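Troubleshooting: if your tokenizer reports a length mismatch, compare your output against this known-good record of 130 residues.
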Amino acid sequence: LAPLQVEMRTLAMLPGLLRQLRAACTRLAAGARVLPSSVQETAGHVRHSVEGVQASLSRARSLHDLSDLVLAQSRETVMRAQLSIDELLEYVGQHAPLPWLVGPFAPALVEYPEDFPVEMAKWEGCITVG
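Known-good structure output:
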């Protein structure tokens, strides 16, 4: 592909990717309301950072519209957001109660204690990791 075609495709994909990232951060911040205030703050900072990147990049009609500084700051912001999300996931993995993490499987875990046999047909089609 010619550099101009790559640029055009990149710019065409950018708004959708930024919308998806912003939506994910909004859901993350909303879900963090049940977590400690420090975790809520981190989630809020991530969302705010992503909104800033979206605002900076959304006005561009070509990559030449974006200064090297804006591109570098955007890249740095997204990298920091990724690290923060990794920290949030680690926190949730270490501190959240099991039923909160397993979601739709929680009723089966609560309903059937470990020593009670569960019909395998109930689990048909489920993917196991091991």
